[in-house]
């Protein structure tokens, strides 16, 4: 057997939406809970459930006992677990201003917190695992995010419009540093200001009329959610990105970002490492954030948009990492076949589909349902009428 039904794990964070995921995927929410994320994967914090003939078990347990389902290429590259974590995400209010580590930073941070005796589920835990966390966000609805530092010239222009001694101090930090240190010096000065000065600067910005009205509006909007939080100034120096359904952005490790509003698919390396620096009541670690940020991740908003490749019925979004690849397939009652070399997760976004392997096993998926396809499935076929999201690792040969 190579195709197994999956049950997602639901995350009910405060920034989530009562209707976003429920309406889009037809998932019932009788208690009107804020559903922020649905997790599909084997991360130890919230592994999916996999339905077996003998009963339902946790996916991480199943793969630990039967790692052959991952595929030889995947096991050689990533070990005996899924290399990716697949989520449906819906934000009604902004997430925390955050950054994710690279492999070296994650390994060091995880070991440090283990030695310090911080429980994996503790409030002040930043590294619950030792993996890096590149991530991709694919918009299912209009989606807004702040992602990556603007070009230095844009930041300078925005600061000059504030007409404040505190803004002048930030300008001086930008102008006095070496080219490769400008962003770090600027942001370090901003984040190390006494809280009273940060709040004074925020108040000045709220009264300022910026040339870019969108920046002005976004600062005011953020302040309604997180009054006097230093993160509300992020539109001054981070790119505001507005995605339409079918568009995506990629955040390499070290990219400062936050999601503002919308529903989408989020695919990342199998990690839950998050270092926060504002727009949240959760644990913040500014000192660690300044160490983890990749200060070369700056540029225009277009530089963070991931260009997909459309191949007839399939839109493929290959991030520049081997951990994951997302495909969105539109089925029109024509059978689509390809070979699977590594473990794959398929989610039905709309309509219905049937997934079959070469041994004759089949599974019907309707909107909101998902399945795990073993690497042992060989040639699989997809048929029906609807839209599917398919995630696998970006290694081996899939066609």
Task: Explain this structure.
It is a single chain. Helix content is about 25%, strand content about 30%. With about 400 residues, the chain is of the alpha+beta class. Among the domains are: about 140 residues, Jelly Rolls, CATH 2.60.120; about 90 residues, no CATH class. The strands form three sheets. Strands 1, 4, 5, 15, 16, 17, 18, 19, 20, 21 and 22 form an eleven-stranded antiparallel β-sheet that branches. α6 packs antiparallel against α7. The longest helix has 13 residues. It is globular, with a radius of gyration of 22 Å. The model has no long low-confidence stretch (mean pLDDT about 95).
Distance separating the two termini: 21 Å
**Could you please say which CATH topology of the domain at 1-10 and 49-85 and 307-399 applies here?**
Jelly Rolls
Unreliable spans: none
How much of the sequence lies in strands comes to: 25-35%
Tell me the layout of helices and strands:
Blueprint: E1 3-7, E2 9-11, H1 20-25, E3 37-40, E4 49-52, E5 55-58, H2 59-65, H3 72-78, E6 84-91, E7 98-99, H4 103-115, E8 135-139, E9 143-149, H5 152-160, H6 165-176, H7 182-192, H8 195-206, H9 213-225, E10 238-243, E11 248-251, E12 257-269, E13 275-276, H10 286-292, E14 305-306, E15 309-311, E16 314-317, E17 325-332, E18 336-339, E19 344-357, E20 362-366, E21 370-373, E22 379-392
Antiparallel strand pairs: 1-4, 1-21, 2-3, 3-6, 4-5, 6-12, 7-13, 8-11, 8-12, 9-10, 9-12, 11-14, 15-16, 16-17, 17-22, 18-22, 19-20, 19-21, 19-22
Descriptive tags:
399 residues; alpha+beta; Jelly Rolls; eleven-stranded antiparallel sheet; nine-stranded antiparallel sheet; 22 strands; 31% strand
């Amino acid at each position: 057997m190579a195709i197994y039904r999956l049950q997602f794990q639901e995350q009910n964070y405060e920034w989530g939406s009562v209707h976003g995921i429920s309406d889009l995927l037809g998932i019932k929410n009788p208690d009107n809970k804020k559903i922020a994320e649905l997790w599909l994967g084997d991360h130890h914090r919230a592994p999916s459930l996999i339905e077996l003939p003998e009963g339902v078990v946790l996916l991480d347990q199943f793969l630990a006992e039967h790692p052959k389902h991952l595929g030889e290429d995947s096991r050689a590259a990533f070990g005996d677990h899924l290399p990716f974590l697949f989520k449906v995400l819906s934000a009604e209010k902004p997430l925390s201003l955050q950054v994710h580590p690279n492999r070296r930073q994650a390994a060091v941070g995880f070991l440090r917190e283990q030695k310090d005796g911080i429980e994996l589920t503790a409030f002040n835990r930043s590294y619950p695992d030792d993996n890096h966390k590149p991530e991709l966000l694919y918009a299912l609805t209009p989606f807004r995010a702040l992602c990556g530092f603007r070009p230095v010239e844009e930041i300078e222009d925005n600061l000059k419009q504030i007409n404040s001694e505190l803004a002048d101090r930030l300008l001086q930090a930008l102008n006095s540093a070496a080219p490769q240190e400008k962003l770090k010096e600027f942001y370090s000065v901003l984040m190390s200001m006494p809280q009273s000065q940060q709040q004074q600067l925020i108040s000045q910005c709220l009264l300022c009329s910026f040339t870019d009205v969108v920046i002005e509006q976004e600062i005011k909007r953020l302040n309604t959610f997180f009054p006097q939080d230093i993160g509300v100034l992020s539109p001054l120096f981070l790119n505001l990105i507005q995605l339409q359904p079918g568009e995506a952005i990629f955040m390499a490790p070290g990219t400062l970002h936050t999601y503002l509003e919308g529903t989408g698919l989020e695919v990342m390396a199998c990690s839950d490492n998050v270092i926060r620096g504002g727009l949240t009541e959760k644990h913040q670690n500014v000192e660690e954030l300044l160490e983890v940020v990749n200060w070369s991740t700056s540029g225009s908003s277009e530089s963070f948009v991931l260009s997909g490749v459309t191949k007839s019925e399939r839109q493929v979004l290959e991030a520049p990492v081997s951990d994951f690849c997302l495909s969105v397939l539109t089925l029109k009652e024509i059978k689509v076949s390809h070979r699977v070399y590594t473990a794959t997760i398929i989610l039905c976004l709309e309509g219905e589909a049937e997934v079959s392997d070469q041994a004759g096993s089949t599974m019907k998926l309707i909107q909101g349902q998902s399945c795990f396809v073993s690497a042992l499935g060989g040639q699989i076929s997809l048929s029906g009428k609807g839209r599917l999201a398919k995630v696998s690792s970006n290694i081996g040969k899939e066609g």
